[in-house]
Amino acid sequence: LDVSMDTWNFYTCLVSLWLHRFYIYSAVGFGISIWIIIQFTTAKPKKKVTEHGNPAASEGIEDKLVNGRATLQAKEVYVAGVKIFYGSQTGTAKKFAKGLAEAVISLNLPVEVISMGDYDPDDRLSEETTSRNICVFLVATYTDGQPTESAAWFCKWLEEAANDFRFGKTYLKGLRYAVFGLGNSVYVDHYNAVGRNIDRWLWMLSASRIMTRAEGDCNVAQSKHGSIEADFEAWKARFLSRLQALCRGEKKPCSRKCKKGKCKSGKQSKESSDREHGASEYENTEAEELFETSSEEEADAEVAGGPNSVIDVEDLGNIMSHMKKAKSSIETVMLNIVYQLVWFVYQLLQAKINCLIIFCLFSGYKLIGSHSGVKLCRWTKSMLRGRGGCYKHTFYGIESHRCMEATPSLACANKCVFCWRHHTNPVGTEWRWKMDQPEMILQEAIENHQNMIKQFKGVSGVKADRFEEAMAAKHCALSLVGEPIMYPEINRFVKLLHQYSISSFLVTNAQFPDEIRNLEPVTQLYVSVDASTKESLKRIDRPLFKDFWQRFLDSLKALSEKQQRTVYRLTLVKAWNVDELKAYADLISLGKPDFIEVKGVTYCGESSASSLTMANVPWHEEVVRFVQELADLIPDYEIACEHEHSNCLLIAHKKFKINGEWCTWINYERFQELVREHERSGGSKTFTAADYTARTPRWALFGSKERGFDPLDVRYQRKNKARDISGC
Length: 728
Description:
Strand order of the largest sheet: 9-10-11-12-13-14-15-16-18-17
Low-confidence stretches: 43-73, 253-327, 348-362, 720-728
CATH topology of the domain at 366-700: TIM Barrel
CATH superfamily of the domain at 366-700: Aldolase class I
Shape: elongated
């Protein structure tokens, strides 16, 4: 009986939530109570203040006594300038940007107005973490909550950076920003979605808000000030006031509740200012994220200098103050949170969101049917922009910008310690889900892939010829996640790929030997050999099968029977599997692969599913040394290629060294001809790996000065980033 994966995962999650509901409510209530008590009982240290009207303080100039004479010290620069980014479709955001620029110029500050379509965030945004500029984002929300055409790439990049462990949670720490969104509340489901998203993504990368996000409304019936222009003018006044405070070195704006000529919140002591000024002084808090939309009316009153002035909600004290004014109570807040939890469970029931879909939403995967997925590889994006291809480009000649990364099975039979999906995908030892047809999977995979490629149209740096080529996928890496070979119709799926003239690179975890034997010819078949002994394989791969070791050995034997190209893929994890050279050599003799890829493990960030740290990531020099020692133990093989940027090397069988030249690349057109002849003959006409080889260029060879980087492209080093040792 086929059971839908959606139903299976849904009921598992639902039952778990229901059985533990009282613990959840109690934990939430207790945590909030402790949090509130701490905030009320912890007193903030008093800071040294200065008097209003002190010219030396207001101008940032200090008197110092040097050799008995008073000298003037140059004032500290807290704000170097303002950069105004706009994403506009009808011109409103652009008009607002120019108006804001004129106002900033009147404050004698440098200002730059930038269209998001002309700006490359990958190259330049990280520079703002140390520039002491204030970045302002004026962004409109377009059809169905999407960004405007000019802002599409900026938003796409920012979203991926916020959810990509390779960037890190502090990638934009030090960048100071403010967001004003332009939208229409008539479209309630998508109202100001772009402004809210940009605000959230910047915050996730540790950028610092200088003030709460504001939202302008084209719907005059709902606009707080009668029109979007009036909304902007009100926000602009608050922004300019905040900007002036920042220029004076104030961490928080003056509340205008000063007594006896003393400012309670404006100036800090010289010692405190020296320590906290600049990009690093603005801290984000969870409270700011939770309560980020404060009352516009209160903000307007602040600009006017009213008695109940509030500029921003930056700490819990201010939050509780607002709540008291609104006659709210702590009990109301707790009930609200419980209500939100219940509402989420209700939405879970209504929408039937299961664990699998949540996995896809948070990882950027495009879900296909009930068990398949596709995702755009970062190397695809890199090669689109002429910044180099992946190691498969170097080793086998694929065109990375034309490669589609997909899987017909999100489920896996292992829970490897270095899995970069952090085990958010389902696991299992047999197929037990309702099966989608391969024709539907491939069609939707290609459509989703093309839609993701289309987002790069007009993006700065993207090469026009490569963009056009990328719309037609030429390669498919069946290695995205899970165990593709578990899919019952994997042979039909592979044949469909070949009918579309798409080469097939299939990866399996060596737990399904029968499926390997029954597999139809693929362009290149990989087996992951993550360890060389039973004990280390159990510790690293954490397989679900009880007879995992016998399955592993049988899979390698099945691989040796294949006539097309075969590859062992070794992932080195320091202190786990780098001391088993002789055992690896024995496994190579068993499976007789054509190639052996050896790669340093990729660190995927902290996870409760794995104990790996950066200490387990080998340096490239360590990987090279391991490969050299391994090659000495297998006389029929030599080191052929290297891709330093991926921390990866290729060992090849000597039969691919023809007349003294390595031929590790693939003649893809010849492969398609051979596989068509094989299918027309009903499988009687066979072919081997030697029938579709191509010469390997010199720059790809081990020992070349390029170290595997294609000289036709330009190597890009991200600014303000530590040396990358994580591989691809």
